[in-house]
Amino acid sequence: MFSTSSVRGFFIVALGLLAAMVASTASAAPTLYKQDAPDFYQYRDSPSPPFPYPGPSGCVPVSAANGIVWLADHGYTRLPTAGAGTQAEYDIVQDLATEMNTDWNEGTAYQDAEDGLKNYLTRAAFYPATASVEGRGLDLDGACLDNTTDWNWVVTMLARSDTCVLVTGDLFAQWRFTGNPWGTDWDRLGGHSIFLVGYDGTDKALVHDPDTGPAESCDEYGLTWQGSYYTLDITIPIPSDYSSAIPGGTEIRSEARWTNAIAFTVPDPATLAGDANLDHVVDALDYVVVSNNYGVGSTWIEGDVNGDGEVNALDYVEISNNYGSHAPEPATLALVALGCLGLVLRRKRR
Ligand SMILES: [Ca+2]
Ligand SMILES: [Ca+2]
Ligand SMILES: [Ca+2]
To answer: Mean pLDDT throughout 226-230?
Structure first.
């Protein structure tokens, strides 16, 4: 599997090896902590159905699903909730993966993750949903050492009671033939995405890592400030047959970094009942939305205001029952940040 011609293949395989992140049970109460967040497992194979492949590159939708469910359980009732290992969990992850164009072999691109989150939230009538990224602009041409992530921004997002954070990490490596000097370039082996649930205020991040499990648990990863960027305490086992596959042997050394965080923002969850077009008043225009999507729509903004997945006469009834209600302009926007560690950039060096 790790022939001389399949170094690229090795890099992809290495994504799965992020499972080897050093983890331990959190012992001290963290400064920031999102309690009751799920910790879905990207390699779920029971109960059926398993994720495709089954799941080595599904870290983004799986970790994002943690945030969706956390929100659902904390006031955002138009989002779906789910228990670990249930059909509902599977459905949420698959729905996110579809919106994100996730390739279960290759992963998820950053832009697709952002767009997918926006679309997913908009469908649930959180409009206008936005997603933003901190730290993007990773230089894959050997200058990864210069990349920085504003950890303060990540922490600020995490601290919001209406916010979830996905942090993304990238794994870099240098390799050489045994006995020769190390090269100067760093190759990006891949990435990973985790759901950030806590921060101890100094040097430890509490995460729900979709690559560890399957038991629901909180992993604690050390953060080390390197002067201009953070590294995570990660060890990566190198497959024994990798070195032997290359004549003369090879050595590899790696470093994993928090390089990006994705924040998605949703508006106030207090959407008016029956307000299909989300203009803060329930009136004839909402009937028009239902009419335009009658029999074919399935989302709130297509007229499914009673949330049963269909646009039909029952939605007319829902609008009728709330006709004339209106709301003041939302005073605040609720921010939801997903900090993601471990996205896959499709672009590779070489
Ligand atoms: Ca886990
Ligand atoms: Ca309306
Ligand atoms: Ca309906």
So the answer is: 65
* Number of the ligand closest to the Cα of 296: 3
Helix, coil or strand: residue 230: strand
Q: For residue 168, list its beta bridge partners.
A: 193, 260
Same domain, 247 and 300: no
User: Do 132 and 253 belong to one domain?
Assistant: yes
CA of 285 to the centre of ligand 2 (A): 6
CB count in 10 Å sphere of residue 79: 23
Model confidence, pTM: 0.68
Q: How far is the CA of 94 from the centre of ligand 3 (A)?
A: 22
Query: Which ligand is the nearest neighbour of the Cα of 309?
Result: 3
What is the tens place of the pLDDT at every residue in 10-52? 333 333 333 333 333 334 445 688 888 999 999 887 777 888 8
Q: What is the DSSP letter of 75?
A: T
Residue 347 in domain: no
Q: How many domains does the chain have?
A: 2
Cβ atoms of 259 and 171 closer than 8 Å: no
Together in a domain, 179 and 58: yes
Instruction: For residue range 52-111, list pLDDT tens digits in order.
Output: 877 888 999 999 999 999 999 988 887 899 999 899 999 999 999 999 999 988 899 888
Q: Are residues 175 and 255 in the same domain?
A: yes
Residue range(s) defining the domain that contains residue 303: 272-329
Does any domain span residue 25? yes
- Looking at the chain, the whole-number percentage of residues with pLDDT higher than 90 is 21
